[in-house]
Amino acid sequence: MFDFKVVADWLNELLNGLMPSWLATSIECVIVAVFLLAAYSLIAMAYIMYERWVCAWIQCRIGPRRVGPWGLLQVFADVLKILQKELITLWSTDKFLHKLAPYLVLIASMLTFACLPWGKGMQFIDFNIGVFFIIAVSSIGVLGILLAGWSSNSKYTLIGAMRSGAQMVSYELSCGLAVLTVVCLAGTMNVTELVEAQADGWFLFKGHVPAFIAFIIYIIAANAENNRGPFDLPEAEHELTAGYHTEYSGIHFGFFYLAEYLNLFIVSGIAALLFLGGWMPLHVPGLEGFNAVMDYIPSTLWFLGKAFFMTFIFMWIRWSFPRVRIDQMLALEWRYLMPIGLFNLVLMAVVVAFGWHF
Amino acid sequence: MAELKDKISALCPQAQFDTEGEFLLVTVDDAQWHALAKALKEQLHFDFLTAVVGVDWKESLGCVYYITNTESQEIIHVKVATTDRENPRLHSVSDVWDVANYQEREVYDFYGIVFINHPDMRRFFLRNDWVGHPLRKDYDESEELNPLRLDDEMNEDYTCKWVEDENGEVKKVEGKVFEDDEYVINVGPQHPSTHGVMRYRVSLDGEMVKKVDVVSGYIHRGIEKLCEGLAYPSTLLYPERMDYMSAHMNRHCLCLCIEKAMGIEVPYRAELIRLMMDELMRLSSHLLSYGCLTMDQGATTAFFYGFRERELIYDIFDKTCGGRMSMSYNTIGGVVADVHEDFIKDVRHACDTIEKNLKEYHKLFTGNVIAVGRMKGVGILTKEQAASYAISGPSARAAGLSCDLRKKQPYSLYNEFDFDEVVREEGDSMARYMVRMDEMVESIKILRQACDKLEACEGNEYCAKVPKLIKLPAGHWYQQVEASRGAFGVYIESDGDPKPFQKPYRMHFQAPCFNLVGIVDLTCRDNMIADLITITASIDYVIPDIDR
Fold first, then answer.
1. ipTM summary value
2. What percent of chain B is modeled with pLDDT above 90?
């Protein structure tokens, strides 16, 4: 399997040979940032298209197909349109916070995005508390949403913001517990090491029952973290018209939209990292030929494929289920998911201590 | 009728009776009216106030109250009038039948009759600054009085009531709709879940709904006023533009009423076609209601499932009537044209497809744990409340009030068909939803039998011989049909005008949705704001039907 580290090291040496190391590091940072930003916007567009197709397929519709072949240019048309729209600010809004909020949401998703295991040797942010860092930065997003709802100074957005505050703070617990369960199994928080530990089998299969429970909890909690699927209460369009982003227009609204799709990719990516082996190919112990064939598929494709597969599950849930009510949502978290998650963490500790995992 | 007359005259010796018409007519003075209303409800079980029709008889102003006994299905109508045209006042019966609350507000809006002891005497449809009361015969239509106003209408924060003390003195008491410290949000007029331009002012405590104030009239077109200026065949256009999801039934009802007044015999085949169209319409309406209820809870996929099957029904309408939304198919004496040659084949195909796919709907939505949690035990309406608020149709049957007019007061050919009335006891959103789902099965049953009958039916007589000029004798008539959302009623009063293009003296449409919107406050109180959406969706009203 091709290790991207070769390319990175070659570039590093090349630049260091040509210029002082501070300049080389700066240029490397810019290259990485440009790469990330490009990936960020491309994946957002791909996801909007993906969601449209999956949604249309589930709903017995055809979906967009007029703009370009198979409607591929639809998303570019939408982006162009949203860029041209006027940014409307109402008299009564808190101007500074109102404009700040979408960037906070964007920054949170951007930071988390950079931590994903893109492929063998393609870890942009890689340090010993990787998973912890992901949990920490992803919760900046809720600040943006709260600020958006509060600063719009509208009753609908305020209800939306309060809902999202309650929801995201609650479900972060379950999400964190599910992640910790896997960390407990792997014994590391480092993203690269987490992936390497799954070389002989993904954690979903290796971790016995508790890994499976953690996976289910993670799917539910991640859906809620993302304000999607049955948990889209903060922007419940049938109750609150558009929830916290009711008063936004143009690209500021677009940022929320973008962040929502990227967050979908990010939670899918984290699920892939924690449970489905990140970029690690599917290896079945004992089947050498099969494993060798699997190794020929590039690691980035493995990661993207897993993320897209997880996203399909999230979309499937979203387009099938009705929305829960706020009290049911909180009851689900505090009465069921959290206690089960805590118990599961203990169970995992026992499993690891006695070596019952595969 | 004579027996009933004796019973009522025992209750109120001053009452005058007229047994000539279709229903017993009781005429009482305003002074005895409230006591009689109470006695009628409590002693003779007339618990269902079917319709309140305000009428201007020129020498007097007043109301005709149609009241039904839900046990024996007897109907009487009571005429109460006042000769004071300057300050017309009648006693309110909103404490006897809750539905009178909104009905009397409508009469106040159109006739200016003030109802004494009514809790909330505001206009219902027109703007607060409207001058005059448009359905009075002496109404001034000049544009100087009511120009096209381009300014916003202020919120109606103040209400008033006229209270009568022991000495018979009537005083106006001002009140407030909402207190100053209440957190009031507007749901509507432009809101995805009010299913049209309807506005609720909702007082919230956190997520809990404390009070709902209905602000209506955004698409009020004054259909009743318009009808007074049209000849009878032209008025046929309007009923199907009220509840567009019961277009055939509403028009059928008006035709039946005119035919009843003129004594026209409708051919069997025509009546059969009308009935089939009614049932197709009901299917289409219930499919839409399934779609909207699921979508309002965020299950957008189910919405598309419902719409996929509705397309089949619309294609049938398209082929036979030439229209999809407003079909204009019924006419006085029958229908405008015979059915398309594919009609029976298409109906059978639609029945089979819908029956098959209903299972899919249940699989996707009915058993879903979230859907059950959202709908079960939420927005409960009891049987007594349903009767008192004059709720009919699926919403009432979900509360255990058996009120299907196809069974109770069979019109058209319904007594020739074998079907069941779907009644449930729970009265919550889930029951309202399930009643609709089960009624679709019954409609399919009726349609299949009707297909057989239509095939066996000889000849192609689809319309009776009707005089070119429609003239009704002097008198008044009331006709009800079971529309998709409940009992739709038409009241026609004719003065027997001998002029060639006779116009109705008064035409009133008793819309089922108008009563349905009356229970929004009752059922949504102390529920969450998300429940408000589910409950209103499960009640399933259509806004143009409320506003007329």
1. 0.78
2. 6
Comparing CA positions, the residue from B195, B437, B451, B443 lying closest to residue B305 is B437
Q: Find the DSSP H helices in B368-519.
A: 369-375, 383-388, 394-398, 405-408, 429-456, 512-516
What is the C-alpha to C-alpha distance for residues B472 and B225, in angstroms, rounded to an integer? 19
Q: How close, in Å, is residue A88 to chain B by CA atoms?
A: 19
pLDDT value at residue A236: 65
Query: Burial code of B436-470, b = ≥16 C-beta within 10 A, e = fewer?
Result: bbbbbebbbbbbbebbebbeeeeeeebbeebeeeb
pLDDT for position A340: 92
Q: Give the three-state DSSP class for B362.
A: helix
Between the two ends of chain A, the Cα-to-Cα distance in Å is: 25
Predicted confidence (pLDDT) per residue in B261-280, tens digit: 888 888 888 888 889 999 99
Dihedrals φ, ψ of B213, to 5°?
A: -110, 120
Any chain A CB within 8 A of the CB of B305?
yes
CB pair distance less than 8 Å for A325 and B185: no
User: Residue B1: pLDDT above 80?
Assistant: no
Residue B93, pLDDT above cutoff 80: yes
> Residue written as tokens 């529309």?
B483
Compute and round to an integer the Cα radius of gyration of chain A: 21
d(CA A13, CA B313): 72
Q: What is residue B267's DSSP assignment?
A: P
CATH for B223-547, options being 3.40.50.1100, 1.10.1060.10, 3.30.420.10, 1.10.645.10: 1.10.645.10
- With an 8 Å Cβ cutoff, the interface of chain A facing chain B consists of 58-61, 155-156, 159, 230, 232-233, 236-239, 241, 319-328
Name the residue ranges covered by the structural domains of chain B: 2-141+158-171, 223-547
Number of H helices, E strands in chain A: 16, 0
The CATH code that applies to domain B2-141+158-171 is 3.30.460.80
Show Cβ contacts of residue A336 under 8 Å, excluding neighbours closer than 6 positions. none
Q: Find where tokens 């029904």 sit.
A: B313
